[in-house]
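In this section we turn from sequence analysis to structure. A common task in structural bioinformatics is to predict how a protein folds when a small molecule is present, because the ligand can shape the pocket around it. The inputs are simple: the amino acid sequence and a SMILES string for the ligand, here adenosine-5'-triphosphate. Study the lines below before reading on.
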Amino acid sequence: MVLGLGLAANHVAQFDPLDQDLLAVKQLPSAEHWLGTDTLGRDVASRVLHGVTPTFIGVLQALLVVSALGVGMGLAAGYFGGRTDAFVGQLTNLFQALPMIVIALAVLTVFHRSMLAAMVTFGIIGSAGPARVIRSATLAIRNELYIEAARISGLSDISILFRHVLPRVVGPVIVQLSLIAAIAVIVQTGISFLGLGVPPPAPTWGGGIFEAAASLNDFPWLLVPSGGVVALTILAFGLLGDALRDTAVEAWSRPVHRKATRLVDNAGLAAGAFGQAPGNAVLSVRALSIVTGEGAQQRTLVDRVDFDLLAGETLGLVGESGSGKTLTSLALMGLLPPGTRIASGALRLAGQVIDLTDEERLRSLRGQDFAMIFQEPMAALDPCFTIGHQLAEVIRCHARLDGRQARERAIALLRQVKIQNAEEVAKRYPHQISGGMAQRVGIARALAPHPKVLFADEPTTALDVTVQADILELLRTLKEEHGMAVVFVTHDWGVVADICDRAMVLFRGRMLETADVIDIFDRPQHPYTQALLRANPHNAPPGQVLPTVDETLARMAQEAA
Ligand SMILES: Nc1ncnc2c1ncn2[C@@H]1O[C@H](COP(=O)(O)OP(=O)(O)OP(=O)(O)O)[C@@H](O)[C@H]1O
C-alpha cells in the first residue's frame, strides 16, 4: 500500500512537495493539509508520499545485491563445503567485522552523496548475515537422498542448486530479504538524517525526521508522520516476509480442509453397508477412498477398500510398494499426509458408525481406540526427553495420574514389552537404546491408552532378523494379553505367515483379495496374489532368479490366451 501510494504520489498528493507557504508553518492536520505542514509551510503528506519512491528504489538496490551475493555465497558454501565454505566463512567474518557506518560515510564522500553507492555498499556488507543463514539451511539438506539421486543422475551442480536446493531454502531466503529490506529503510533514513544523502529541499523520510527532531520542543507532531511512515514500512516488510514465506513454503504442508467430491453417498453408506459385517468384528471399514489433487488433477490413491477386523485378529495388508497399505492405515488414524484426503468411507467401531470424511470424529479415535507403531522406531521418539518421560507424558494424557504414578506405570509398561531393566531404561535417552529396544518402547507407548486396534506399519522392516522375530513374538503375546486386534502393514510374506490370521492384498489402491492366511498361501484366487507369492524370496531355492510380479502376470496372460 505504501509503495502504491508512493508510485501514485503525483496524483494523490495535493501539493508540490517543494511549495513553501511561510504564512502556514507548523500546522496540525486539517482538511487541506492531511498531515499538517512543516517548518517552511510545506505540505507534510505530499513530502512523505514523494519520499516513498527514492526509499523503495534504495531498498530494491540493496535487495538485488544481497540476493545475488548473500544467497549465492550461502548456497555455494553449504552445497560445495570444503574450501568454498572456508572462503565464504572468512569473507562473511570480514564483512561482519567492518564498521558499516564508517564505510558508508566514506563511500558517500567519495561518490558525492550517491544513494546507489551507499545501498550497494550496504548490500555487500549486509550479505554476510543471509549468507550464513542460507549456508546452514543448505548444509542441512545437501546430503538428502534426493539430492544424492540428482547428482548420481548426472544433473549439473548449478541445476541441482537452483532446482532442488533453492526451493527448499526459499523460506529462510525470504525472511532474510525482508530483514534486509527493513534495515535498508533504516540505513537510508539514517543517511538522510545525517544530511549525507539526497540534499534538501528534496523530500526524503530521513530529511523529514531531521527537521522534526530540530523542532521537537515547540512542534512535536512533525515527528509523527515522518517517524510513523518509517516504522510502519519496517513493520510491513516483516509481515510481508512472513506472508510470502507462508505462501511459498508452508502452503503445501497445511492440511487440506476442503472436502473432496464424494465418490459415494456417505449417509447411505453408513446406514446400510455394515449389514454384511460379522458379529464379532471390532472394526469394519467400508468404501474407504483416498484421493490427491483437485478437480481434473484429482487422482484416486485408495479405491473403495472394505474390510472387517475380528476381535483378537491380526489382519495383514499386503502389496507392492505404492499399493496404498500405509495410506489405508494412516487414513483410519486421521493422519493422512498433506495433499491427500479421504473422499469417502465409513467405519464401525464397537457398534458406532463414523463417517470417515468427518476429520474431527476420526481424530478423536486416535490414541484412544486406535494406536500405531511405525517402521522407524527411533524417529518416532523425541531425542530431547528420556524414555520414561515420554511414556509418562502419554499415560497422563489418558489417565488422571500424578507424576510418580505415571512414572510407575511407564516402568510397568516397559516390563510388559519385556524390557528387563525397565527402571534403568526409563532414565535413558533414545540415542542410548538400540533399534529393537526403541520399537519395544514404541509398542509400550501404543499400549498406554489400552487401544482396541493397533496399526503396525512395517514395524520390523528396519530391524535385524533376530530382533524382528523377538518383536513379532512380543506383538503376538501382547495381542493375546490385551485382546487387541492388529492391522499389520507389510510387503513381507514371511511376516504375514508368521503373525497374521488373515491377509488383504492391495494393488494400486484396490483391494483384490481377502482370505485366511492358509488359504492365501495354498489357494490364492487372484492372479496378482499368485504373482506376488511367486516373487516371494522365502519360497525360492537358493540361487534361483525369481520372476518379477509383472513377468508372472504376463506369462499367466499368455497361458490364458
Ligand atoms: N502425500 C502424498 N501425496 C500424493 N500422493 C501420495 C502421498 N503419499 C503417498 N502417495 C501415493 O499414494 C500411493 C500409496 O502410497 P502408500 O504409502 O500407501 O503405499 P504403500 O503400499 O504403503 O507403499 P510402501 O510399502 O512403499 O510404503 C502411492 O502411489 C504414493 O505415491
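Confidence is low (pLDDT under 50) at residues 252-265. As an exercise, try to locate the residues that line the adenosine-5'-triphosphate site and compare them with your own expectations.
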